[in-house]
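Project standup — Tuesday

K.O.: blocked on the structure for the chain from last sprint. Re-posting the sequence here as requested.
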Amino acid sequence: MDHNQLDAVGRHVERIWREVLDVPAGQEGASFFQLQGQSISAVRIVAQIEDDLGIVVDIGELFEDPDLETFVRNVVAKAAGATPKAA
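H.V.: unblocked you, prediction finished:
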């Protein structure tokens, strides 16, 4: 994937996260659990990413309580075929 495609993946993942977790204004940097993420939210996010983008994400990644930036970086790295780098 080229840079533009990876940027598009990141934007799409961000949209899914915001829709599923119903991120309130001022909470954009909150982590999965801070946004009241639960098992069903994790399943919905992972399933929608796989359905929409064809990228397989381990649901366990969400239970590591990432914030949006970290989660997007990890998914984009998967899309690029790379191992994500630590923050």
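K.O.: great, moving the ticket to review. The chain has a mean pLDDT of 92. Residues 3-80 form a domain with the Non-ribosomal Peptide Synthetase Peptidyl Carrier Protein; Chain A fold (CATH 1.10.1200.10).
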